[in-house]
Write a structure and sequence with these properties.
336 residues; mainly alpha; two-stranded antiparallel ribbon; 12 helices
């Protein structure tokens, strides 16, 4: 498991480096940086199209290699613990275990208090929605929330349906997991390899009602890394059923919520789509509003609260902790 995951992580790092603005450590140029410069700074469509193709091919090769390594390593997720078939969890501890549990809770409270104290200046900034009167805060928050929900729903429907078919229904039996190879060329593909083509399409009137492609939703809508994780979860549920073990519904829900939430959180950090298409929208997203405010001279009250509202962060942290606690007996294994 360690070798397979580590090899895939190395390839993922190489793919990330190719899609970052500058090369690691040396500050050298990368294909993505050159692509953005040619497409949106120098407005040279032919070199930008060639670079898009070259970058896509390089990422496809890395994706195929990483997927083949993961599948050949037989990486699986076991959703049940050794005492689950009995239908009752491990009996609650007493004595020393209770003391250790109380000490753990006390230590966790101290860590939370220290973290809040250190992060308080940043946390107060997350309450700011900017000092500009021409910023429609309500509309920006509504647009951002609507698009966040839309992206999450599409991810769950598209990737979840494919994962259920491959991991749980298993049309090819035990070899069904190898169907993931069909998606492997896009394992590491982000926005850059396709954004210039989508920009040209939108510029020619194919961007939708307000000129923004896909109604402002952020592609890609098939995130292969998410598809792999959901397939492993579905495979674990099928294995539990085949072993006549009660399917741990709460663990499955917690695992799905974690991987979908993490995928959406990563997508949320990407501002490239808003940077390229944001000026066509009647109402800016939170990312665009923050970028515009950062570009204004003398702007000190940045609308960080639009991007990361503090109540939402607290709720997300609580959900994250709850989901993690539900995965205590979930393990990553190789084929048995």
């Amino acid at each position: 498991v360690i070798i397979s995951v580590a090899a895939a992580a190395v390839l993922a790092g190489a793919a990330w480096a190719m899609q970052s603005e500058n090369g690691p450590l040396t500050g050298t140029g990368t294909p993505s940086g050159e692509l953005y410069t040619r497409a949106f700074v120098m407005f040279e469509p032919q070199p930008a199209a060639v670079l898009s193709l070259v970058l896509g091919l390089m990422l496809a090769v890395l994706g195929i290699l990483a997927m083949a390594i993961l599948l050949a390593g037989g990486v699986r997720i076991r959703l049940t613990g050794p005492d689950d078939p009995a239908g009752s969890g491990r009996p609650a501890g007493s004595g020393a275990a209770g003391v250790l549990g109380a000490l753990g809770v006390f230590a966790a409270v101290l860590v939370v208090i220290g973290a809040v104290a250190l992060a308080w200046p940043w946390m107060t900034q997350t309450l700011s929605t900017g000092g500009s009167e021409d910023l429609p805060v309500g509309q920006v928050l509504a647009r951002t929330a609507l698009h966040d929900v839309g992206n999450a729903v599409i991810l769950v429907l598209v990737c979840g349906s494919a994962a259920f078919g491959i991991g749980y229904l298993r049309p090819l039996g035990s070899a069904s997991r190898w169907l993931l190879l069909l998606f492997s060329p896009w394992f590491f593909t982000g926005l850059l390899p396709t954004i210039f083509a989508r920009f040209n399409h939108a510029a020619q009137g194919g961007g939708g009602a307000d000129g923004v492609p896909y109604g402002g939703l952020t592609p890609p809508f098939v995130v292969v890394a998410l598809l792999v994780m959901l397939t492993l979860i579905a495979d674990g549920a099928r294995r539990a059923k085949d072993e006549s073990v009660p399917v741990p519904t709460l663990r499955i829900a917690a695992a799905v919520l974690l991987v979908v939430g993490f995928t959406h959180w990563v997508q949320r950090q990407q501002s490239l789509n808003d940077l390229v298409f944001g000026y066509w929208a009647e109402v800016q997203s939170a990312q665009s509003a923050l970028l515009i405010s950062m570009g204004r001279m003398g702007m000190t009250d940045l609308p960080v609260g639009l991007l990361v509202p503090l109540p939402l962060l607290v709720l997300a942290a609580a959900v994250f902790a709850t989901c993690l606690s539900a995965l205590a007996r979930v393990s990553l294994i190789t084929r048995e």
